[in-house]
């Protein structure tokens, strides 16, 4: 590594430590040392009471919104063809961050978001599910108490804390009504929770939890239920303690499969996608250029080899595939509507003006899990073991169940690539921007001067916690409930709120999801796909997945400052730069407990074992 690179890397690492060094110790009332005088009698004693936790003067309300499985080019707020008027309004009155990143899959993203630390560092390199975790420090799926969440920090600083929707970080074996509840939302700082603990659920028959118990769903769509609950939490709090700040984590299961939504919403898109996914990509890229969320000279990467040429498809396939997309689009617009209900409630009750809202449109890129033909019935359906032609016939027979409570729909690969415009690859692919590049909106009317501003600074999901703390004026605590805390690893984006030209401060970031991996360093990126032609949904029940040595992987190199969507591989042109970045990846992997590298071969061939006798197997959710 050259001197300049070494200096920049040192600066990046140091920046991640600043929030934890030289800071005062934040203490909850129970931790404050007794400051009175205890004599033998009351006359020679002096009473003392611990001061209750209080937020900073004028502290804003905080709302974090995290959607599921939405590509960069889906929402109209970032040039997509799916109407999201709530997001549009927040972005037009706030800031659009065009260079923000997630971990490429849900649980790692959520663990990094809530803790401000890298996912492997907090033990969520895979999932908290038995089938997708492993007995190593970076992989066991159990966030340590020394890596406290944003909810714990805000709770101990005088906020009420609420979460609704998808949590996704409770180990399977602990997700029953007998607990233990340490890793339920209530054990991680949320005073109230209403939603589901796993990675996905049926939207009409959800695996529903309220606080520390499972409850019976009422038959309405889950998005409507979680929105009602979020509003009720705020309303109850403000009635009892007007002006007390709150933190709401609103994380719907939408628009993860199953794509289920009332026909009122999906029918609004009848005929809107008849031109197909190739035309969609072209139209979205043009919109993105007009909005300024991609460079003016941006070009589309080639259509993925697994995606069919739309114009070559027969009419029955086009009919089927457009219905999948109409449903997905209606589902996203419906989700935007429900979020709009929360925003409108805040506005109508004079709370919006001092509420900072952060919207991450997707915990990863668009999902590749819908197969070439799309999925209507669950993967366990025997038809999935048949040929693609036979599976296509099954889908055509069941077309009317797409989007309904009877279906378990997920759209085909072509629409995944389209809604990921302008990037290549998709969810699970930590090597590619299509897996990790998601929109971020920041809204706070009182402090953001440039309404509708564009921000191109590099950001990662760990950055939202330190951004929020700096904005509110709260120090990252040295201790939470008596437990010494690890350093915050994210880099606050607050410096960029009113300075569009400020240079990026987040200079180094690694990515790893089941074999695919990459390293970002000061505008450059090195990546390896590992199994570039294998997609988990192609594995039939009982199929043995071919092993492949990590040493066989071909690393690629991109200059993202000049080639933001990875069209020109520079590995052969700049081998020294590639070697430099690979070394940085190794350093970051060591530091963050990424090793041992675990991939789909290990998962599907049952090479991971658990103490309860349950072997690892099954698809990522």
Automatic annotation (TrEMBL):
What's a Pfam family in this record? Sulfatase
Q: Which UniProt keywords apply?
A: Calcium, Hydrolase, Metal-binding, Signal
- Point out the signal peptide segment: 1-26
Please list the residue ranges annotated as the Sulfatase N-terminal domain.
60-474
CDD domains membership: PAS_like
Instruction: State the family named in the UniProt similarity comment for this chain.
Output: Belongs to the sulfatase family.
- Under what name is this protein listed? Arylsulfatase
């Amino acid at each position: 590594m050259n001197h300049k690179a070494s200096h920049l890397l040192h600066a990046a690492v140091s920046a991640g430590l600043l929030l934890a060094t030289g800071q005062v110790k934040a203490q909850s009332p129970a931790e404050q040392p007794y400051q009175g005088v205890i004599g033998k009698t009351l006359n020679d004693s002096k009473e003392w009471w611990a001061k209750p936790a209080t937020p900073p003067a004028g502290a804003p309300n905080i709302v974090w919104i995290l959607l599921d499985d939405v590509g960069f080019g889906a929402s109209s707020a970032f040039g997509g063809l799916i109407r999201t008027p709530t997001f549009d309004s927040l972005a037009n009155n706030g800031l659009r961050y065009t260079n923000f990143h997630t971990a490429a899959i849900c649980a790692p993203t959520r663990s990094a978001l809530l803790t401000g630390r890298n996912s492997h560092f907090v033990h969520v390199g895979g999932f908290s599910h038995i089938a997708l975790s492993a007995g190593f420090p970076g992989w066991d799926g159990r966030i340590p108490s020394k890596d406290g969440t944003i909810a714990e920090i805000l709770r101990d600083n005088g906020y009420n804390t609420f979460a609704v929707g998808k949590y996704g970080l409770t180990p399977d074996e602990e997700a029953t009504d007998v607990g233990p509840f340490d890793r339920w939302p209530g054990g991680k700082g949320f005073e109230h929770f209403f939603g589901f603990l796993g990675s996905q659920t049926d939207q009409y028959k959800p695996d529903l939890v309220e606080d520390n118990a499972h409850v019976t769903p009422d038959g309405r769509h889950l998005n409507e239920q979680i929105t009602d609950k979020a509003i009720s939490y705020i309303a109850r709090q403000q009635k009892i303690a007007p002006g007390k700040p709150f933190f709401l984590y609103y994380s719907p299961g939408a628009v993860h499969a199953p794509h289920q939504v009332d026909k009122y919403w999906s029918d609004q898109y009848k005929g809107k996608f008849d031109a197909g996914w190739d035309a969609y990509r072209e139209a979205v890229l043009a919109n993105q250029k007009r909005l300024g969320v991609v460079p003016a000279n941006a070009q589309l990467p080639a259509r993925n080899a697994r995606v069919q040429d739309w114009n070559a498809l027969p009419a029955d396939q086009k009919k089927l595939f457009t219905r999948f997309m109409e449903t997905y689009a209606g589902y996203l617009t419906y989700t935007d509507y429900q979020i709009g209900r929360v925003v409108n409630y805040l506005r109508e009750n004079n709370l919006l003006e001092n509420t900072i809202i952060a919207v991450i449109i997707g915990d990863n890129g668009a999902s590749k899990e819908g197969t070439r033909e799309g999925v209507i019935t669950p993967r366990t359906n025997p038809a999935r073991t048949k040929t693609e032609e036979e599976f296509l016939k099954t889908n055509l027979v069941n077309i009317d169940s797409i989007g309904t409570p009877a279906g378990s729909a997920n759209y085909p690969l072509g629409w995944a690539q389209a809604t990921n415009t302008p990037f290549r690859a998709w969810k699970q692919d930590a090597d590619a921007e299509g897996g990790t590049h998601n929109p971020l909106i920041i809204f706070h009317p009182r402090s953001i001067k440039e309404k509708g501003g564009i921000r191109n600074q590099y950001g990662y999901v760990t950055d939202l916690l330190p951004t929020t703390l700096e904005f509110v004026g709260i120090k990252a605590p040295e201790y939470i409930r008596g437990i010494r805390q690890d350093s915050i690893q994210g880099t606050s984006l607050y410096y960029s709120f009113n300075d569009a030209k400020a240079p990026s401060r987040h200079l180094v970031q690694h990515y790893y999801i089941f074999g695919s991996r990459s390293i970002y360093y000061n505008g450059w990126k090195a990546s390896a796909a590992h199994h570039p032609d294998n997609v988990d949904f192609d594995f039939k029940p009982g199929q043995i997945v071919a092993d492949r040595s990590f040493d066989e992987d071909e690393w690629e190199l991109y200059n993202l400052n000049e080639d933001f969507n990875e069209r020109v591989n520079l590995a052969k042109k700049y081998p020294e730069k590639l070697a430099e970045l690979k070394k940085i990846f190794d350093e970051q992997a060591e530091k963050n407990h990424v090793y041992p590298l675990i991939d789909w071969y290990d998962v599907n061939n049952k090479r991971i074992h658990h103490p309860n006798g349950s072997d690892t197997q099954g698809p990522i959710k």
